[in-house]
Specification:
Length: 843
Amino acid sequence: MIRFGAPIFLVLFPFVVLAIGLLLHVRWTRLASRVLILLLFFLALARPELSLIRQDRTTMILLDRSASLRVAQSDMSTFSRIQELVDANPGQEFGMIEFADTADMVYVPGEYRPTLFPTTPVAPATHIQAAVELALAAMSGGQIVLLSDGRFSDDVGVAIAKAQAAQVPIHVLPVGTEVAEDLSVSAFTAPAETAVARPFVLRVDVEAPQASQARLIVYRDDDLIIADEVELSRGRNTFAFTETLETEGVASYQVFIRSDADPIDDNDTLSTTVQSSELASVLVVDGAETGVVPRLLAALGIPYEVVPRIPSIETLSQYRQLLLADVALATITASEADRIANFVRNMGGGLFVIRGERAVTGFAGTKLDDLLPVSSTVPEVQQEASLALVYVLDRSTSMRGLVRTPAGDDDDTTMHAKIRVLRDATAASVALLPASTLVGIIGFDTEYDWLRPISRIGDTSGIMGILRRLRAGGGTDVFYPIQAAVEALEEVDARFKHILFISDGWTVNEPRDFDGLYERMRLNEDIALSIIAPDENPNFALLSAIVEAGEGELYHVSEFTDLPATMLNITQRLSRSRFVQETTEVTGLLADRLAPLNIPPIDGYILAYPRADATVYAWADDDPLFTTWNLGIGVVSTLNTDLAGDWTADWVTWPSMSQLFSEMFVLSEPSLFAAEGVYVSVTLSEQDVEILVDARNERGEFADWLHLTAVLLPLEESANLRQVAPGLYRTTFPRPESGGYALRITDESRGSTIQLPMTIPYSTEYSATGADSDELASIASMTGGDVLSSDDLILTEERRFAHRAFTPIHKQLLWAALAVLLLELIILRWPRRRVQPIASSTR
């Protein structure tokens, strides 16, 4: 097969030959050679590539012998599938490689014969890379048939890339079925660190494919502490137990799930460790001064101290967590916010912020807001704003009247037009609103204009310029501007929509469909309308009817000079739309973790928006209630309701309140362990345990050129940590068997030691059974292979030669053109013997 990269030159060739034939008058023999040279040259310009199909009938079978497949399918069934494949493709030269954590050649191509005796022992790992590399080394070209469940321990992408480079297709034959009786312990969690004599929660998650009974067993070190018969339902089952450590040290816990019908024991156990100490771990700033949060901490046995303000960084460094209990966040200074940020980001501390109504009043856009996992500002990707507000402002002739307003001193006054007072009051009102608020402004007399279409406020500096277009004059027609505001708000996405109408209500005596307007307002339940009537004798009948339909409020301002203060008070109330004050159910992961306890509903919460990397554990309606995220090497959590009983009266009287608070507290605890400027993180892979240490000095700067060592206990394996970046050190250990361990890091340069618990779970081989069809289909698709089935095991020509190797031949064509040209020149220059004519003589 041949293909061309630039076939346009083949189209041009006949025209060039025709031009040469017309312009050059040469003998046909020379013309033929020139045409041949041009043909070769233009073929080379067309960049031809040639593919020769090699009839290679070699097929290598890769047989997965890992534990995940062995428990899901019998050897007899697996080898029956292989025999069916061989029988369906007579004439193929089959070979076989068995692989698990290693790969072994069982039969070279052409020597396969049926067998039920595997050479590779079952192992809790599936390394496909080694198997593909061995197959490619054992054959030239050919194809691969992979029999596997698709659950691999290494990087599948490397194996795919090697097969692609060799242009060898990998066909896949999925094997293995889900084991219906298999129970597994999917999670076993506990706080990494706790205080002596403080109760904490051990939580066990058990996965069951069907309803069954089992025995749940928990050991602390060598002591049996739990042995319960449990009922399991289909799916995830969560069990929680309260535990207490009476002495300092590290305790190892191990959980087992046991059932006679369970065929796989390896995924029935997990371990975890808990370190206990006598130190106070929590610093509390109790803004509400109700003592509720300290009492909850005391009930849980959590050591704490209460302070009135954010202390110095030296004091903060002595604690693991800082808890702000309904503190007025607007009162936290920039320097205090910087201290908190340093405590969380650089020292690995935890920040738990409880935000009730008192906490967020006047709070927006400060440094502390950037630390929280939720924001009061609508994110750019969020379409729905918190508040959309339309000001409808009367600019009729009555607004040209003068009023006496304070000039600055107590006894001084000055005269201003009402319209100017209205402009100034509106600008001040807008300035009070959050930058994310949607605001529109309508001015009206007998006609109306949109001075500012509904849009986000952003920078408020241009509002006064917009309001200067508000000039008094003309009559008054209140119907059409209200109708326009309602129509515009119907098209807006916002949690709260409000119209603030400022007028005395005396309108033109013309027929207007007010009944239709009232009905439309009643149908739009999410749009409210409030009225400020700045006049001694407003049209109460009309204004009251409008307010009733709009389900708002009517504010009568008899003295026009009181208008600014009234507008500011109303704006403050409207801006409090960030407070959702209605009975709301609590849902989400937090409620699931506390099942079967039912968390009581709350009567109010703070409206906020989760940031991109945050985890929301509890929701109030569709809004985040309890949220956490990682910040630097620390953790920040927020609870968007109070714990003093204002919005959580049912929580305060709930018998399980301490358990709810304990769950939130555990989720907000930082996971890193820090001591003397050493911050440790552990990453597990299938083969290794990677240790990273972030080292800092007393100023929070990177500490370089330290001598750090790591010891894995109780194995007593040790390693030196090598510096890989400023302040960052790294080492690895071979992954040990599953169980509980401790890691001791010694900073020999500064004479300090830190020890932290570490848990090694069972291999991912045992996390699930059955074939991963998506993974196998991806391997076949990316290498040009097919997904085989029991009904279709024939390796057709299309399957055997899915890839064609194309070789460029333009250079060869250029050499051929040059050879023809040289041959022609040689022929032209070759000397020829001339025949002399015979001279005639006369006698």
